[in-house]
């Protein structure tokens, strides 16, 4: 009897393996490359080291608290929004919620996303006099924050490449694009635009030895750079338009307009 080889069986097996590799259910079980944990729902609490990534754009209904909170002891956390957004518009203007909150934490990085319609977009703050250091906010767009877009306190922090739009509330109150306090904070290459408050402040600092470099501030209504509380803060290469007082306080290192 003549021996024959059925080539169909290995071909079908190969195809089945390929299709299994492309099955959506299998891919969804793995976090994106570079992420140790994927955030799939909000609110969410981070309490251990890792790279945390948003799975997709998420809509919240928070009247208080925060969408993402960093807790625990001395941890290092990266929050990579991966170009997605956290939107709290449905909670209304009475909400006091914060988009991302880390109190008394160091080495926290928040990057690459959009935060919309919170009272404050991002707060990386000290607690009870604790010394926080090395936090970074980069490439984040905060829109419609009713108090402040980005609040950061401590030493050696950075806010870079961010955009804050439509901050504050309509009326005579104060609103802040970027609010920084402490020692040696670098605020560089940001765009802050359109205060809704009559006394809006594009970038406001207190403390010492800050560097405010290469920012663009449009229509803050009140102050462009408000550095009165930081007499040793240095500012350079900034451009302010639409401010009652473009620059106030600090040390002018040149090329500010």
Please outline the helices and strands.
Layout lengths: L7 H14 L2 H5 L8 E3 L4 E3 L3 E5 L3 E2 L6 E5 L6 E4 L4 E3 L10 E6 L4 E9 L3 E6 L10 E8 L4 E8 L2 E3 L2 E9 L4 E8 L2 E3 L2 E7 L3 E8 L2 E3 L2 E14 L4 E3 L2 E11 L1 E2 L5
Parallel strand pairs: 1-3, 2-5, 3-6, 4-7, 5-8, 6-9, 7-9, 8-10, 9-11, 10-12, 11-13, 11-14, 12-15, 13-16, 14-17, 15-18, 16-19, 17-20, 18-20, 19-21, 20-22, 21-23
Task: Describe what this molecule looks like in 3D.
The protein is mainly beta and 257 residues long. The protein has one domain (33-252): Pectate Lyase C-like. The protein is built from two helices and 23 strands. It has helices at residues 8-21, 24-28; strands at residues 37-39, 44-46, 50-54, 58-59, 66-70, 77-80, 85-87, 98-103, 108-116, 120-125, 136-143, 148-155, 158-160, 163-171, 176-183, 186-188, 191-197, 201-208, 211-213, 216-229, 234-236, 239-249, 251-252. The protein has a 23-stranded parallel beta sheet that branches. It starts with 7 loop residues before the first helix and ends in a 5-residue tail after the last strand. Residues 1-29 have low confidence and may be disordered.
């Amino acid at each position: 009897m003549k021996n024959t080889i059925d080539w169909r069986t290995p071909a079908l097996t190969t195809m089945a393996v390929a299709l299994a590799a492309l099955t959506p259910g299998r891919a969804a079980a793995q976090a994106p490359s570079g992420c140790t944990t994927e955030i799939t729902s909000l609110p969410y609490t981070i309490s251990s080291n890792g790279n945390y990534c948003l799975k997709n754009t998420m809509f919240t209904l928070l009247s208080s608290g925060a969408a993402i909170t960093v807790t625990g002891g001395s941890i290092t956390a990266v929050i990579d929004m991966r170009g997605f957004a956290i939107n709290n518009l449905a909670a209304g203007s009475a909400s006091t919620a914060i988009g991302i909150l880390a109190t008394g934490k160091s080495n926290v990085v928040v990057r690459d996303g959009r935060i919309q319609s919170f009272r404050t977009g991002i707060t990386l703050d000290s607690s009870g006099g604790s010394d926080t250091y090395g936090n970074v906010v980069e490439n984040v767009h905060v829109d419609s924050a009713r108090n402040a877009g980005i609040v950061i306190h401590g030493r050696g922090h950075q806010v870079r490449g961010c955009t804050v739009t439509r901050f504050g509330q309509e009326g005579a109150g104060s609103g802040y694009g970027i609010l920084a306090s402490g020692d040696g904070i670098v605020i560089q290459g940001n765009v802050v635009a359109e205060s809704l408050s009559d006394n809006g402040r594009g970038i406001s600092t207190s403390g010492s030895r800050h560097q405010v470099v290469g920012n663009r501030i449009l229509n803050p209504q009140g102050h462009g750079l408000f550095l009165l509380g930081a007499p040793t803060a240095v500012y350079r290469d900034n451009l302010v338009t639409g401010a009652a007082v473009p620059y106030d306080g600090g040390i002018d290192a040149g090329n500010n307009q």
